[in-house]
Amino acid sequence: MGMVLDVAVAGGDGVDAAGTADGTDGAAPDGGHAAHGSDAAGGTPGAGTAYPAPATPAIDPDARVEEVVDPVLPPMPQERVHRLTLTAEEVELEVAPGITQTRWTFDGQVPGPTLRGRVGDVFEITLVNDGTMGHSIDFHAGALAPDRPMRTIAPGESLEYRFTAERAGIWMYHCSTMPMSAHIAAGMHGAVVIEPEEGLPEVDREYVLVQSEVYLEPGSGVGGGGAEGGPAEVDMDAIAAERPAFVTFNGIANQYGSAGEMLQARVGERVRIWVLDAGPSRPTSFHVVGGQFDRTYLEGAWRLGDDDGPAEGAGAQALGLQAAQGGFVELTFPEAGHYPLVSHIMVDAERGAHGYVRVTD
What we know:
Elements: E1 81-96, E2 99-106, E3 115-118, E4 122-129, E5 138-139, E6 158-164, E7 169-174, H1 180-185, E8 189-195, E9 205-214, H2 236-241, E10 246-249, E11 263-266, E12 270-279, E13 284-288, E14 295-298, E15 301-304, E16 319-321, E17 326-332, E18 337-343, H3 346-350, E19 354-360
């Protein structure tokens, strides 16, 4: 993007004041910064070689998602102790209409199952590794020493992970096996929604969107995904270079638009949209085109409005999140129509982080 600088180091052995070992003008080999692995020039930082930016693969405009991920937040369970088993497994899943990848998953889905509870609830999780490599799990919703519950387990093994939810918010969970960026990017992430013990104000509709990046190996394309027609694998070099092929809501690019099913609302209904940025690396700026937020909640605290009601005479246009941060927005829609929901980091919206809310009378 042009944000490039030179650091000229003087005084070392064999280095002159111009910062070069041979007294040249300091230009990078081949006439630029690409040979230094500059990310701005398309290189992996520190790799010393240029890395070509993978274009978002062309998608058939008539293609539809085979199975849309339900964005509706599951209802609040009645029990206060939540016992469940999560299975780590590697499966072929769509990452865009007509394009598949071998995904590393919790329970065969991306994102993993959304968990829900209240402050004070206890979660007793059994992780079973049915994959072909080591996997683990890390719940941000709990505070505890990671040594044993977050350890990597080999295929065929299991572990018990118990925590108490002591603080409200939408919390990420993910595989913490190294390289962690690869395990998260491959699909091993999910959300835990924890409400205050007294609950949040009721709304008419409640959705959850987990933004994440997809990195396809070179040669991936339409009709299966991989270079030879099979599913694509995860591209480790693209992860290191932060060059995603797609950026998604709930694991599949474009699924909440013409390629799939739109979110639904009616005029005047209060809609709450929980948003979690699972990354592994890119931030988001969540925006609903044509809408204005009158209540926002970020990292466990009200930022606009509160339990007593929406903000009066004030609003918000976007919810900005770094990787592993989350919150929610609330709004009502003034008239019928189709309202795009996007990451306002526009390059990521164009990579697939967009959809629609279809509002009817």
